[in-house]
Amino acid sequence: MTGHRGQQRAERRGQQRAERRGQRRQEPNRRVTDGLAVRNVSHGFDDTDVIEDVSLAVERGETVAIIGPSGTGKTTLLRLLSCFHRPDAGTVETDGADVWALSERDRLDVRRRIGMVFQEANLFETTVRRNVSYGQHVRRSWRDRLAQWFSRLRGGDASEAVAESLDLVGLADAGSRPVGSLSGGEAQRVSFARAIAYDPEFLLLDEPTSDLDPRNTAVIEDAIDTARTRGLGVAVATHDMNQAERVADRVAVLLGGRLIEVGPAERVFTNPEDPRARKFIEGELVY
Amino acid sequence: MIEQASPVVAAADGALPLFVELPFKWNYVESIIYVSLYVSLTAVLVSTLVSLPIAMLVGFSEFPGKGFLVALINTGMGFPSVVVGLIVLFAVSNQGPFGSLDLLFTTEAMILSQIVLAAPVITGVSLAAVTGVEDGVRDAAYAMGGTRLDVALVTIKEARYGIVTGILAGLGRAISEVGSVLIVGGNIARADGTSVTRTLTTAIQLEARQGRFELAMILGAVLVALVLLINGLVLRLGGSRI
């Protein structure tokens, strides 16, 4: 009797799931997730589509690794998520709201909830501290910026968040160093500290360790883990499968501009559904 | 044993002249330096205020005819100063569009001609500096939540050494220029010999033509020293790496 009721409940749940799936297909403006997401997004440059019909969500407190060979559209996907480009088709959403339907002011607020680390460190030619505090600087009113400028003239240039971010990447004592004196690994760590110093909700990392030695890579990976445990939604684009396995909760495999597989990291790495994803993960040439 | 007298004792004894007689009156040179600096620094200041926004606008935006405008700016960098002098002369002469302002043979007319000469140099070099800032730096400022103005300010800051170089190049062009200031300024001095529109360059030209080569050389040395001093000051203040 109890077994029969359980079976009925399971069938009902299955039916509800199927209905929900049907509704998703019918409702183009349906809210995908309580996070940062792209839905059915296509985008290209010079009449060539770089990514086609991609849907992916990054929720708070998880790390999603976007893996795929070079030139497959990982950077473009991250740049769409961080509102650099308006997609040719589809939507970019935060907590269900289409960011490109918002006013410029509201979109700025959305952008300010996202941190991004690029493949190159892209540091400003000043001190480490000034780089890391830039995110906070642009969030101040012009009046506060002026006050901050006077405060700096008097020697007061300390910020707890900046110190904490530098500490997270093992550069607690590097605040006063000019960026020209940093090694490549240190510069990338500063770039990471800079992206989290203003307390974003999402962190997008574009091949953050591609040019780094194992020690610097380990520091960045530990920082990614810390960011996730603090509740940030993290997306890491990487072609380093081992790194994706180490840091990711979920993995999205991007090939030829299309998302061919998305799922829990353990499942995707042990038993990928798509044969091309399997080949890529096994190290075979798939492009 | 023969004792050698010190130079001071020798001068007191009349063996050496106590003061060297200079081949010019100091107030003459002083007034020329003043006019030169006033005209050139004012022209460079105005040129910078005009040129920097133009460089930013051209550098950051795409519009039809941009290539032509950049070519025009680059051409302006090498524009012959005598031709500029002629154009400004026509503009400020009685029959010209600014004739009613009565600017001919004044320092203001000289400033005007130097603006025309310095502005393309400052614009051109600043434009190259601004467009030379890596896209990645601008992307980083944008990604961290910068507005368009924040991104522009970061770009100016990153291009600061190039911009300072442009301003110095403009100052060099202005202060060492002789053709146009001679035409629109007239190289005028008062009856007491002090300068009205005479600059270091026009004075050097005049003194050399009249055979007072020592004075021409001294004025030339003053001009070079001034340019060096201004360069040194600007680079020092800018914490230069140039």
Automatic annotation (TrEMBL), chain A:
Gene3D superfamilies: P-loop containing nucleotide triphosphate hydrolases
Record-annotated membrane-spanning stretches: none
Single GO term (MF): ATP hydrolysis activity
PROSITE patterns: ABC_TRANSPORTER_1 (PS00211), ABC_TRANSPORTER_2 (PS50893)
Keywords: ATP-binding, Cell membrane, Membrane, Nucleotide-binding, Transport
Cellular compartments per GO CC: membrane
Region (Disordered): 1-35
One Pfam family it belongs to: ABC_tran
Entry-linked InterPro entries: AAA+_ATPase, ABC_transporter-like_ATP-bd, ABC_transporter-like_CS, P-loop_NTPase, PstB-like
ABC transporter domain mapped to chain residues: 36-281
Biased composition (Basic and acidic residues): 8-33
GO biological process terms, semicolon-separated: phosphate ion transmembrane transport
Record-given protein name: Tungstate transport system ATP-binding protein
From TrEMBL, chain B:
Every ABC transmembrane type-1 domain range: 33-234
One GO term (biological process): transmembrane transport
Localization: Cell membrane; Membrane
Key words, A-Z: Membrane, Transmembrane, Transmembrane helix, Transport
Keyword Transmembrane helix: yes
Family stated for the protein in its record: Belongs to the binding-protein-dependent transport system permease family.
Protein name: Tungstate transport system permease protein
Organism: Halorubrum alkaliphilum
